[in-house]
Amino acid sequence: MILQTLLEREGKNAIPYRFHGQPGKTITLNCYTSAGYKPGNDVVFVQHGMMRNGDDYRDFWIRAADQHDLLIVAPTFSRADFPEAENYNNGIVLDTEGNVTARDSWIYHVPARVVADLVAAGVMEEGRARIYGHSAGGQFLHRMVSLVGVGPFKSVIAANAGWYSLPTLDTDFPAGLAGIGLGEADLRELLGAELWIMAGQMDCEANADNLPSQPEALEQGTGRLHRARNYMANGKAAAEALGCAFGWRLTEVPGVAHDGCAMSQAAAGVWFEGGLPSAEVLGAGAGAVNA
User: Fold this and answer.
1) CATH architecture of the domain with residue range 2-283
2) What's the whole-model pTM score?
3) Cβ neighbours of 191 (radius 10 Å)
4) Phi/psi of residue 120, each to 5°?
5) What would the pLDDT profile of 96-135 be if each residue is shown by its tens digit?
6) What string of DSSP letters covers 80-114?
């Protein structure tokens, strides 16, 4: 199996991957195998932003991979096969007419499917997967948790999302979670999930590049930081109204704006080093890719 090359060849690899829910389309797994990686170590999945640059996002994690003997897997959804936000950020949940598509065609299932295939190939062990996404990847991940759950991931970090699907069954998807077959039990599961929201404290500009500006997004706040805080507030209020557990947390990263590299270093720090890294580490490569 081609996935086994991840154990046979250190460094960068790009592996074509097919998802049964979207026949005829190819996803590329941009991977990095550190010299010290072996099955039983952690595997970090990385969801890229709107630029579909999974190779860059993989590279942002090489420092952490080498320090902590990790395998990095960045499922990359090309613009050719998955154009526009509807076909990546929003998971192909709705068709062009606004109708709900078949649940097993939603691309939010892809990361869990890749984990299962890596376990079956002997590349990783169960229970060792984490997943991080930035910008459009942050949108992808919080919606993944909302619609299909945390799955095999022991930690999920959604960073600097441009806007959110609020935890309400009173507003249609993607602004809320109504109209796609979810019920109160799904909402309770979402609110109790260990969903980690991260936001750069400098990612607060109302006129920032590529910031979603549809009315539903503007109602969530002026910038990405404000929208992250609003999402958390809505989640807490929904959990209190339902009388259920609330498992989300928010980490604000000082001195960082909409920077995929810096936020990757922040996520690696809280996962593997006990807290946010120094300003020097956060600044290394800062501004390299912003989407």
Assistant:
1) 3-Layer(aba) Sandwich (3.40)
2) 0.97
3) 22
4) -65, -30
5) 999 999 999 999 999 999 999 999 999 999 999 999 999 9
6) TTS-TGGGTTTTT-B-TTSPBPPGGG-GGGHHHHH
